[in-house]
Amino acid sequence: MTLTLLFKFVPQKNVKWKSAMFGAVFSALLWEATKHGFNYYVQNISNMKILYGSFILLPLFLIWINFSWIIVLAGAQLSFVHQHLDVLQSLSRKRRDKVEEEHVISPYLGVYIMTAVVRAFIKGEGPLRMEELEKTLKMDYGIMEPFIEKLLKSNYLLSVNDEGGLMPARETETIRVKEIIECFEIEQHDRSFPAVSTFIRDMKKQRFKWAGETSIKDLAESNWKSKTGNENAEESE
Q1: Residues forming a β-bridge with 167
Q2: Which has the closest alpha carbon to 19: 80, 88, 87, 77?
């Protein structure tokens, strides 16, 4: 009851009774569990009392005060989350949508994903798991998910085994970098400035000249060899 009143009236904002009780129950249960655990440690495990006698009571008391305060703060935080759960979930969705919007117009993330998958395939590591892909690209799966789904639907990737490992769906020599880029590019035609649209199309053609001549396997092997060469150079030093 004391914790409920504490979480209800101490904060400067209005806290609902239900949220205050939710955090209070959590803190009370955690406090009881911690109390029994701390008491068991002091009575049965720690030999500090034998060494220091009554002098050990003060530091033990301060440690217990610290634990108790952490539990109270955790309960208060949980009360806040309980009361504002809908708002927090909405903010999380908006943040994720914003990140996806920033990346979805960029075709190059698809090239990075394909290169990582093909490189693992060439090295004989088998299907690339999602955890390994996140580690390789240093990027959260939530950002890569729409790109991976697009590559799967476009028959560039296959999802195999129960872990959702990824491997090339076609012969890697036949997949051109240009194809991957075009798979994600959004064509925009501005009737107000046709000259600008023509210029952008011509610029893309020049950019795609190299991409059309390079397969994803060439890119993966080049990346792999470059990385291997750097590692060997570091070892020789």
Answers
A1: 158
A2: 80
- In angstroms, the CA 104 to CA 123 distance is 29
Helices 141-153/177-184 angle, 10° precision: 110
Q: What's the token pair of residue 155?
A: 């028959």
What is the CATH architecture assignment of 105-236? Orthogonal Bundle (1.10)
Neighbours of 128 (CB within 10 A): 21
| 173 in Cβ contact with 217 (< 8 Å) | yes
**pLDDT per residue as tens digits for the range 1-25:** 788 888 888 887 788 888 889 899 9
pTM, to two decimals: 0.47
Domain boundaries, the chain: 2-83, 105-236
Distance CA 101, CA 10 (A): 41
How far apart are the C-alpha atoms of 161 and 146, rounded to whole Å? 20
Residue 50 burial (C-beta neighbours within 10 Å; 0-12, 13-18, 19+): exposed
